[in-house]
Write a structure and sequence with these properties.
It is built from 4 helices and 6 strands. It has a 6-stranded antiparallel beta sheet, covered by helices on one side. Strand 4 (about 110-115) and strand 5 (about 120-125) form a beta hairpin. The longest helix is centred in the first third of the chain and has 13 residues, at about 35-45. It is globular, with a radius of gyration of 14 Å. It has helices spanning about 10-20, 35-45, 60-70, 75-80; strands at about 85, 95-100, 105, 110-115, 120-125, 135. It has about 140 residues and is α+β, with helices and mostly antiparallel strands. It has a single domain (about 10-135), classed as endopeptidase fold (from Nostoc punctiforme).
Length: about 140
């Protein structure tokens, strides 16, 4: 697991990050599900867990190649490499969740995902019932 832990002020840092990305347009290697979540984690911890991936791909095939080189078989494996898995119902604000296709950031009983809704790009909220997996971003002790 990772030494990534939330710092003091993480709640405001996460809120600011989500606000800054509310109109984000999905783009491989810039703001896809992995990099969106990594940015949120970076805001809360001060460490970007995807630093080694940023700028190294611009297509789905490129993303798959980077994941393979880093030893991850799929998107959930990226989260599992850094955090302890928990049940989706146990996820709380700031934890990472998976809806079967993409990673998102829990903000309560809903999570934010980069996507499109009614033809408008930006953060899309999906309810707890749509999450299949979740990982705890730990708090400092």
């Amino acid at each position: 697991m990772s030494a990534l832990v939330r710092h003091g002020g993480w709640e405001q840092a996460l809120a600011d990050y989500l606000l800054a990305n509310r109109d984000a347009v999905f783009a491989w290697g810039r703001i896809d599900c992995v990099l969106f979540c990594a940015g949120a984690i970076g805001a809360m911890t001060g460490i970007d867990p995807a630093a080694g991936m940023r700028g190294r791909y611009a297509t789905p095939i490129g993303a798959r190649r980077v994941m393979t080189r880093m030893g991850w078989k799929d998107v959930p494996a990226i989260a599992a490499a850094h955090f302890v898995e928990i049940g989706p119902a146990s996820a709380s604000r700031g934890d990472v969740v998976f809806d079967g296709r993409s990673l998102g950031v829990c903000i309560g009983r809903v999570a934010c995902f980069v996507g499109e809704e009614d033809g408008m790009p930006g953060l899309v909220q999906l309810s707890l019932s749509q999450w299949t997996r979740a990982w705890r971003v730990p708090f400092s002790i």
